[in-house]
Amino acid sequence: MMEMEVKVVLVVLIQKLRDTFNEELIANNKLMTGQLQWVQKSLEMLQNLSDEGDDLDKSQKSRCYLCHLYEVENEIDKFSFRIARQRQRYGFLMKHPFFFSNLTSCRMFIRKLTNIMSKIGCFPEDHKAPATPSSSISSSSAVWPIPTIPSPKHVTLTRTLSTISHPHPQKKRLTFSYSYNDDHVLPNVHDNQSSYEVVARGYNDLRIDLKLCVLYLALFPKDFKIPVRRLLRLWLAERFVERYPSPEDIVQKHFEELVDQGMIQITKLRSDNNPKQCCLVPAFHDYLSSKAQEIGLFYNHHDLDHLEDVPGPFGVRRMIQKTGHTTRALTNSVQAHKFDPSLLRSYVSFNLPCRDKPAKEVGLLLGRIINSNFRLLTVLDLEGVYKPTLPNKLDHLYLLKYLGLRRTFLDNLPDSVGKLSYLETLDLKHTNINSLPNSIWQLKQLRHLNLNNILLTMPPSSSLTLVTLWGLVLDDKTHVDELLGMLLNLRELGIKFQLSKKSQDVLLDWIAKLSHLQSLRLRSIEGTSALELHLKPLATLTKLTNLNLYGILETLPAANDFPPTVKVLTLSISQLNKDPMETLGQLPCLIVLRLLGDSFMGKRMVCHRGGFKKLEVLKMWNLTELEEWDVEEESMENLKELNIRRCHKLKNIPCRLLIKPRRLKRLVLEDMPDGFVDLTKKRITNDTTLIINHSTI
């Protein structure tokens, strides 16, 4: 039903208006704020579109509404573009109230919104716009007033106002079954319902804000394994959720709800059992893909040679590229329209087998956007595109929020990226980029920064909003307390360093203050050689679940010095001489333990009685000196997976892990001696799957 999709688009518009309110320059201007709130209130009335009339009439009316709503979105984004451009040109002068109130763009914005709203014919009950500014304010400094416009009679609206922040009561939900790592999950069909009816009802019963998120999933190719990290950050950049207090928490909750509803399928788990990859359940993809394209949510193109004529009356707002797919009109009745690159909001590409063509197309498309009158692009996601061509004038994309370059293997980044004042996500992981422009640290809205081992040379003095900082390199020339001391909101932190003990102490003191930290990786290394890691108590990190330590440890901290919530612990090159299992067995939440290359140098290891109560996965790799391993009663009782690699001196696996009623489901042996493998085969039960991988070296 098209009227439902009108409400979905309204979610984005109202959120964009709210973001406009929060612009510092507008928040301090009561005239602008009051008039924009009136526009928002008018838009919210469309949440109660009447169900009267036949389906054809409602569909035509809804399509008309969509056209006008997209006009509203265009004006909101164009206004944001003008403000961003003025800010870059005039800098601090923009904060002067006289300067801002005289901006022609303010008057033009309000006037155009008023004209569009008159076409929609949707106004608050009193049918009155905000009062015209006081006559004491001269016309040269007053914002263009919104005139009073009579409400048309041809639109039927309910009286009750409905806002996005207070969704409709939850309806009775349909339940769907799904399983991990199953590419062909379909909803259960009950009571002789067709699968189409079940899927349609499941979608229709969703809250409006969840509809928007699940429709966006149809943008990805069917069965495409979407990194959850990528999906959630795209939702953020697209303004699908409110920005306060924590947008990351909101999108995470939305994701979990859609998984619970059976619409998102988890295809791969992380070691701590958190989702790593996902996809839209195929039945929902079939149902929603055409619907999302019909309302202009995205446009699928084959190559830029066929972009001059595009289907639909809404233009191209989000473009996706899938090699091997051809562009087609959505319906025979829809006329082709001229492609306008200035209105493109998002460009998302996928990991493609052909290298040169996507890279060339990206450069061509960005050139057309930059040379257009308006440059409204907010998402540029090139993950997996091999060495795309980026223009030097990247800073002309004033509204860009998301720049995804992961696995592009780019060699350098235009210096102009440091001028993208709206940028929230910059992902450079798995590239060849080894330096950043100093101006990157001045980006006040930057939240997620994934690097590829880049040395910190400039203090992030203004990037206090960062919640992800991964792939950073520090050395003894770095004044850690000055450069990082103000970053206290981090949730994910990955640092590689070559520091003296004194500098490491300063670093660990700062880390101990990161009360929101959930994932931490510390690597003390010079070139390819591990250095000493002077670990300090981390018990104050009460939200930390994933801890990865790479470096030589003189001693392992006591159990009560570890974060009490740690679920996944990885030790590499620790070179511990004392058996670590007595300490690690006391960690109350530990689910995954990875003892990797030379983390333990002793000959005997004992897992004591009652230890490792929640441990499910144990990996022991390259423990070259380990000969004996014993597991006492009531230890590791919940172990499900055991992976042993290149522990060539290890004599056997403890009997208690192999016999019933143990729950060991999966045993992986990699590059282990033949005698060890043969003995293990004789001792395991039929309940355990044995996987043997021989060395290929």
Automatic annotation (TrEMBL):
Q: Which Pfam families match?
A: LRR_14 (PF23598), WHD_DRP (PF23559)
The source's domain of life comes to Eukaryota
SUPFAM superfamilies (alphabetical): L domain-like
The residues covered by the Disease resistance protein winged helix domain are 219-286
Membrane-traversing stretches: none
Domain named Disease resistance R13L4/SHOC-2-like LRR: residues: 372-645
Q: What InterPro entries does the record point to?
A: Disease_R_plants, LRR_dom_sf, LRR_R13L4/SHOC2-like, WH-like_DNA-bd_sf, WHD_DRP
Q: Kindly list the biological process annotations in GO that this record carries.
A: defense response to other organism
**Record's keyword terms, sorted:** Nucleotide-binding, Plant defense, Repeat
The molecule here is called Rx N-terminal domain-containing protein
Highest classification ranks of the organism: Eukaryota, Viridiplantae, Streptophyta, Embryophyta, Tracheophyta
